[in-house]
Amino acid sequence: MKFFHHPGFAAPIGRHMVPVAKPALVAAAVVKVLPQIEIVEPDPVGIEDLCRVHLPKYVEAVRTGNPRSLAESQRFPWSPELFGSVCLTSGGVLAAARQSLEDGASAALANGFHHASSDHGEGYCTFNGLVVALEALRAERKISTAAVLDLDLHYGNGTALLAATRPWLRALSIYGNDYWMNRSYMDVRARYHVDGPNHLSVPLVPTKGGDRDNMLEILEDWLPWLVAEGRPDVILYQAGVDLLREDPFSPLDLGPEDLLERDRIVFEFAKREGIPIAWTLAGGCAPDIGKVVEAHLNTAMACSGVFAK
Ligand SMILES: [Zn+2]
Prior knowledge:
- The chain contains 10 helices and 10 strands.
- The protein has one domain (2-308): 3-Layer(aba) Sandwich (Arginase, Chain A).
- With 309 residues, it is α/β, with parallel strands linked by helices.
- The strands form 2 sheets. It has an 8-stranded parallel β-sheet, sandwiched between helices.
- The two termini are 12 Å apart.
- The chain is globular, with a radius of gyration of 17 Å.
- The longest helix is centred in the N-terminal third of the chain and has 22 residues, at 82-103.
- Residues 152-154, 240, 242, 283 line the site of zinc ion.
């Protein structure tokens, strides 16, 4: 099995609540604990790949830093290194998606950046690597349909907006924090979404003592929706770990063992259905980075365990 990581994933954004060192720490943990997994450096995507999803004006703003308000719409300071870094993270998702078509499963040890939409960034997400990767695979004629399964704590609003104009894509977001117009809503009952025929949002309302069972039940109930109109050619899985109870945004009482069970269910589903799956790290901001890395490593172990069988 091959996972993709590049030291250039980390953009120099200074001290920030988004842990930019995380992908390198997860890659090091995978090397140590799962030596059977080969870590490979991906190539960056090019401007043509980005422009299948994002407006040229926005891509140019991120490349040059002008206009600055647009280049920083994802809410961190622009630097000349930012563009190269986000081309590499999208390249990682593309490489993992392509590899999963060969091996059944793969991973990009990068974020999928699900808040980014066509003309701007949001929520620390510059380019939507998930849809950039899928559009590139369609251009290569390697896939014609795809699904995004988003189990990050936050609603994948950017992916939903991009799915709305792409009938070949099915996007399911099961979330414990809503997200809209660069704002996070910890109470998932505060807003109401208009879903579309191919993009669906399912909130996780906190339950006293029942968050694990509720999450797993909702997941089992809605996974079949991904294949309701035929099997997609690939699934991209945003395996966020910001649902952990230690995360500053999480209203849910969930531990690493609960997310490990979630991951097992997802990988068993993909294997049973015979659909290639590539996963990304997605969110995770708990103050103890060790806990975040442990939870991401669990996803790697679940993936390796299910697909090595
Ligand atoms: Zn998140």
